[in-house]
Amino acid sequence: MGWVMVMFDLPVMTDEERRAATRFRKQLLDDGYLMIQFSVYARPCVTYEALDTHTRVLGKIVPEAGNVRVMFFTDAQWARAYTVIGPNYAQGNRELDPAMPKQVEFW
Predict the structure, then answer these.
(1) Which domain holds residue 55?
(2) 88 phi and psi, to 5 degrees?
(3) Taking Cα atoms as reference points, which of 62, 53, 51, 68 lies closest to residue 4?
């Protein structure tokens, strides 16, 4: 059991680039990713084969001028991560400490 983390830089200088970046982020959310930070998303991943599948999907949806890095963390590594937040940082709708989604706890 582990987590796939996707970090990306996408150009947003033109209307079309902004639309492409928004489309990419929405597709990540539709595929079960959680927004960790503005350009950092993660999702649970049960096997290395699933990691390969999600990586292939990313290759198909990344905007033309996008730069995307994919990393895999075991569940134990993810659990040892820390989140340090300043007292005046507005968290919005991002997760402070994303827990394992209920449907994956079974594994």
Answers:
(1) 2-81+94-105
(2) -110, 15
(3) 51
